[in-house]
Amino acid sequence: EGGRMGIRIWGMARMLLFPSHSHPSFLLPQARTLSSLPPLFHRFAAFCSFSSASLSPPQQQPGPAEDNGDIFPRISVDRSGLYSAPEHSHDQESDTGQNPMAKHIEALIRFRGGPITVAEFMEEVLTNPTAGFYMNRDVFGSSGDFVTSPEISQMFGELLGVWSMCLWQQMGQPTAIQLIELGPGRGTLMADLLRGTAKFREFAESVSVHLIECSPTLRKIQQQTLKCTWESGKHKLSEGGSFGCSLETKDSSVEAISQLSGAHVSWHANLQQVHRGVPSIIISHEFFDALPIHQFQRTDRGWCEKLVDIAEGSRKGLQFVLSPGPTAASKLYLAKRFKWASIEEKAKLDHVEVCPQALQITKEIACRVGEDGGGALVIDYGEDNIISDSLQAIRKHKFVHVLDNPGTADLSAYIDFAALKHIVEEAAVGAMAFGPIPQSQLLGMLGINFRLEALLKNASEEQANALQLGYWRLVGDGTPSWWEGGEDLAPAGMGSRYKALAIVNSSLGAPVSFQ
Predict the structure, then answer these.
(1) What pLDDT score does 453 carry?
(2) Is the predicted pLDDT of residue 436 greater than 70, yes or no?
(3) Which of 195, 199, 229 is nearest to 25 (CA)?
(4) What is the pLDDT of residue 501?
(5) Helix axis angle, 154-170 relative to 461-475, nearest 10°?
(6) Which of 73, 201, 278, 439 could cross-link to 67 by cystine, CB 3.0-4.6 Å?
(7) Which tens digits make up the pLDDT trace of 255-300?
(8) Per-residue H/E/C for 462-501
(9) How is 366-424 classified by DSSP, letter by letter?
(10) 473 near 499, Cβ under 8 Å?
């Protein structure tokens, strides 16, 4: 039976990889021609399901919060007697005094009576409803701040469609399945996935698409990318950017139909809004790296937490400081992470990053696929061990200081894949984790070489150059030996730096590429 299933799975994939005919306009959308591809810098993530407070300072909540069953409950931080932290990041280049987000952060710090955590800083900077980095503009592509795999080549989304169909086949081809994407950006990945799988009618007709997105601006762009039309009684997003809602519901879900495949498309503010009881295939590409992290540093006073404060003296703007000693966050989050680490690993560390929300969302994913069936694919840059000091900022495709003009640069940190696997194991809900494996292995097993050959047959010279360059960026490592342009323009391969983790229902066994 296993052999027959393998043949059926590869047969489905081969139909996609070797189409009988391909129209040149399908080979490479105009937005992804060679001339529009800037140097690759990592990052994507439309940071969604955890929206922050408005620019008005939130009400302070003194004292530790009650444990509500989450992996990490919300806690308060002792902000007294702080110390300056040594800098280990890019230099600040500009005065942030006139920056609206910087003013908001400074007002928040004053309202709180002291510095805020790095996690609080990230959440405000990225998803504040009024001035958050992702909330009111398109930050992707050559005209934005960074470029991601789906924007580099259509092959990425197409091959994730192959992975999804193979998992659907392993599940027994259910007649209804929820295809969920966390942080879909412009919707490019999902558009390529739906377009590539539309010819497989049994799969296409079983799928409903659910996009987890909190940005009004990106929701409208996703509508256009997916070529959505609206059912009677459904509303488009308003021009002012608010979420249109189904007349029959009271939540923030919005439903449409994609003309790419005929699938119903819904938007949700978080994963919890997507219905339970239906098998799900969940795609997360560069989503976890934008979730807020806590940073800790080893000192002679023990493990202290890194915080963000108002710069003192003649300096303007913000600065990093250290707590005078261990905080509630270090005792809770760090203790949880160190429980999974060896003595040797802990002894080598001077800095540690922990992302409570990543662990909580991973637990939710494991519970969903373990109880309802299905699986998830998490693709991001990270390591299979504790992350030390990876927080970074990117503006207009260049690295900048994390505190420089907050709200105008993307913030991200490496993913601790080892911690995600431990959470799946601890959840014990009928789910298993496989990997992580390099992105090059994932795409190679899915047939990217064959797909490239098929596309090149009908490509123009410009399209062929773009396809080959995109191929290298997806599966190569470092700078290609054949590159003849300027060193500062050389494409950076993502083949080993980006990794993939699969979380699937235990009854399915290892999914394709992880076997």
Answers:
(1) 94
(2) yes
(3) 195
(4) 98
(5) 60
(6) 73
(7) 799 999 999 999 999 999 999 999 999 999 999 999 999 999 999 9
(8) HHHHHHHHHHHHHHCEECCCCCCCCHHHCCCEECCCEEEE
(9) HHHHHHH-EEEEEEEEEESS-B-S--EEEETTEEE-TTSSTTSSEEE--EEHHHHHHHH
(10) no
